[in-house]
Amino acid sequence: MVVALGCNLPGAYTSREALLEAAVAALAGEGLAVVARSGWWTSAAWPDPAGPAYLNGVALVETDLSPAETLAALHRIEAEFGRARSERNAARTLDLDLIAHGRTVTDGNLVLPHPRAHERLFVMGPLAEVAPDWAHPLLGESAAALAASASVGADAKPHHP
Known about the structure:
By secondary structure, the protein is α+β, with helices and mostly antiparallel strands.
């Protein structure tokens, strides 16, 4: 299973890095065992690059939870970290996205794989870092190939504080 993590506001934490590290640690408390994770990547805010820059990464997770239960767990963690869902693309303390749940393909309220993740370098770049051969459940392309062709967040790069 692939979970993307991101933020551009540190919330109650001293930095975005500290917030994301705490979020990774919180996954286990929801039955989401992290088996691998990327480093953090930075990218300009979107759609307005004048906003605070984002920090993003991915975690490979094992769980017995269903896709819907997993999404509910991710939303609980976001709420614990002060995520307020206001306008689309607003600055945020924590964004957790379920990118893929095994090879599951769904549509409706929960769309899997995530419908736009393959276009986003700030998701595919970190995923290619930890699982370059991961294959998109619908497209069949590897994370490395998708990172090379990603068109959204093309400025994303590994973060070196």
